[in-house]
Write a structure and sequence with these properties.
The structure holds two protein chains of two kinds. Chain A is α+β, with helices and mostly antiparallel strands. Chain A has six helices and 13 strands. Chain A has one domain: outer membrane lipoprotein receptor (LolB), chain A (Clam), CATH 2.50.20. In chain A, a hairpin with a 3-residue loop joins strand 3 and strand 4. Helix content of chain B is about 35%, strand content about 25%.
Chain lengths: ~250, ~400
């Protein structure tokens, strides 16, 4: 899953498998496809030379004509903090640090995530999860091939250690990930999410998709990444849990 | 013979262009249900078969009225509310968009078929309980009678149509005629003032004035806001108001006339009133997604008595909020049955000029009942009356305050 897809799932408030065109014996192993993805997007070394990432972008909800801005910070091994400023909905923050997944916005107030929702947040927070996909997805399987917007793709079912499985589509030609079908989990329920990514660009040796179009249930979402920078200084307390979240964690521990 | 001929309804012959517009309207109506209804087989019907059945009827329709009747009949097969077609002429009567942002400084609602002043910023000039007879040259009683006679027009739309007649450009002076307590005609030149609150939109929704007020009535908190919009301000002020009321005897939240807005705000506000984890207001079913209206209890949630005031113009998010809290046993509801318009619905203009409303989701309140078509039935049915207003009382608010007082006494 690309950084862009992670942030798409973060932004969500809230398949049937097509008949394979070829038999399982004719298809490359999922491990080969995932390793190839790491290679074509820069290789293990290019990923691993970074310890911090800052991503900024814009967001559009075309169905209601709403626009917003997003910023996501990530650091090794699994720290994450995102700010989403979505027009009239105001500021929404979320993060993962020290095993705590949380969110805070004007509607729900501060909230600690649990269960599958926490598992998803933890997976999304893993820095360089692409390289370490074996840790993220203990079970992967090539289930067929299928065209996505005219591009022939291998289809992989990736099952994480905790949480819902994802279906990922990798271009046969380029080796790049072009689509993911996942499940966004929250107290509002489980919402199927389809994310198509495109416009890969090179950021300091790593190819990263800069556009995504998502469908979450009946709602559509478009994200454009405008900038990605690596290893720049960030405030020491950037990933610290907000005081309201700390209070909730302390209360739950009692 | 001429008399016989004259008694036959005569419709103007449709031009080829009008016929085409009616067909395009039919396709728009059919497609909206086909693509947006929350069930892939809307109401269990094969919607393609419906198309084959009704399109020839629209093609054969000799008038726009006849074409509209066919489309209404098609929508009637759904046996669901919020699928309606408004004739262009009526739609124009209902459309407040041309009225302007100016506000007369008083609120008026339809009580027993009459437009009655229910709130006045300038009671020396316009008094509570007065009936508005005329606004800007338009007679209101016939307008109300005409709209009330159409079963397709619900109370919320009626109230909007009335409000539109009382509005206009800011600073414009409108001659208005009232009937006072004794029934005497009173004329006032009313200068329209800027609306209360901030203008706030939501995506494609045009900006609308949203106000929030909170005050103390004795030791009871009173909260009112006219729409579930302007999320940043309203959610913040709601939270502040609840926290300031931590030691109140109770809280009254007045949702009368509130047509709804952002559904998520109902969940957020409920989080200030519900202490228990794992609760929800209800469930919304859309094509491809089911959403729980889950409540995240705030650490500072209020635990005392909560009274909600509703009326026939309390719609959508107001109903989700009131219905859910009622089902959870967390609030007592006072007033009259709500608008029964809890579904997200869309109103568009058809190519032939008619208005078309259609729902895109179904919503079931936590108690297992659809709010759509049913509304929220108050625990205590109280009607706002002209007589009470003339005596300076709000009968619905009085009933809620009395209940809160009794709750305190019973402790």
């Amino acid at each position: 899953m690309t950084s862009l897809q992670r942030i798409t799932l973060l932004a969500s408030f809230a398949g049937a498998l097509a008949s394979p065109l070829a038999s399982a014996q004719d298809l490359p192993k999922a491990e080969t496809i995932l390793d190839r993805y790491v290679e074509v997007t820069g290789g293990k070394a290019a990923y691993q030379k970074h310890t911090h990432q800052k991503m900024t972008g814009t967001l559009l909800v075309p169905d209601v004509g709403m626009t917003g801005n997003l910023t996501r910070y990530a650091a090794t091994p699994d720290k994450e903090y995102s700010i989403l400023q979505l027009g009239p909905l105001g500021k929404a923050e979320s993060g993962f640090n020290n095993g705590v997944a949380w969110e805070k916005n004007l509607i729900t107030g501060p909230r600690v995530k649990n269960g599958d929702e926490k598992a998803l947040a933890e997976r999304e927070a893993r820095f360089n999860a692409q390289v370490d996909w074996r840790k993220t997805y203990p079970k992967v399987e090539t289930t067929g091939s299928e065209a996505v917007n005219g591009e022939e793709c291998y289809k992989i079912l990736a099952t994480p250690a905790a949480g819902k499985p994802e279906t990922q589509f990798y271009s046969k030609k380029s080796g790049l990930l072009v689509k993911t079908i996942a499940t966004a989990v929250s107290p509002m329920g489980e919402i199927p999410v389809e994310v198509e990514v495109s416009d890969y660009k090179n950021f300091d040796g790593v190819l990263i998709a800069t556009r995504s179009k998502s469908k979450m249930g009946p709602q559509h979402l478009e994200i454009t990444i405008t900038d990605i920078s690596f290893d720049q200084a960030v405030p020491a307390d950037l990933f610290e849990l907000p005081s309201e979240i700390k209070a909730l964690v302390d209360k739950a521990a009692k | 013979m001429l008399l016989l001929l004259a008694s036959v309804p005569v419709f103007a012959q449709l031009t080829a262009e009008q016929k085409q517009l009616n067909l395009a309207s039919f396709e728009a109506v059919w497609s909206a249900v086909h693509d947006k209804h929350w069930e892939e087989k809307p109401a269990g019907l094969d919607w393609q078969v419906i198309h084959e059945e009704y399109r020839p009827q629209v093609e054969a329709a000799a008038s726009t009225e006849a074409a509209r009747a066919v489309m209404r009949d098609m929508l009637g097969r759904l046996q669901q509310t919020h699928f309606a077609i408004f004739p262009a002429a009526v739609y124009q009567v209902l459309d407040p968009s041309a009225a302007g942002d100016g506000w007369p400084g008083f609120e008026a609602h339809v009580l027993n078929g009459r437009v009655i002043v229910t709130e006045s910023l300038n009671p020396d000039s316009v008094k509570l309980g007065w009936e508005v007879l005329q606004a800007n040259g338009a007679d209101l009683p016939p307008l109300v009678a005409k709209l009330q006679a159409d079963p397709a027009i619900h109370e919320l739309q009626l109230e909007r149509a009335v409000a539109a007649r009382l509005s206009g450009p800011i600073a414009a002076v409108r001659p208005m005629v009232f009937a006072d307590a004794a029934g005497a005609r009173v004329t006032r030149d009313v200068k329209l003032i800027p609306p209360r609150g901030n203008f706030a939109g939501f995506g494609n929704l045009p900006a609308q004035p949203v106000f929030f007020e909170s005050r103390m009535l004795g030791n009871t908190g009173y909260i009112r806001f006219n729409m579930f919009l302007d999320l940043v301000h309203v959610m913040t002020e709601f939270g502040d108001a609840v926290q300031k009321c931590a030691h109140c005897d109770g809280i009254v939240i007045d949702l009368r006339g509130n047509p709804g807005g952002i559904g998520g705000m109902a969940m957020g506000m409920a989080g200030w009133l519900v202490n228990q984890q794992g609760q929800r207001l209800g469930t919304m079913y859309m094509r491809g997604a089911t959403l729980n209206f889950a409540i995240n209890p705030r650490a500072e949630a209020y635990g005392g008595p909560v009274a909600l005031l509703v009326d026939g113009s309390s719609a959508s998010t107001s109903e989700i909020f009131a219905g859910g809290l009622k089902d959870l046993g967390r609030a007592r509801i006072f007033g009259t049955r709500t608008a029964a318009a809890a579904l997200p619905s869309v109103i568009t203009r058809l190519p032939n000029g008619d208005g078309f409303q259609y729902a895109v989701a179904n919503y079931i309140s936590e108690g297992g009942r659809a709010l759509e078509g049913n509304g929220v039935v108050p625990d205590v049915e109280v009607k706002l009356t002209r007589e009470a207003l003339l005596a300076g009382h709000d009968s619905v608010l009085d009933a809620a305050l009395d209940w809160i007082r009794r709750q305190k006494e019973s402790k």
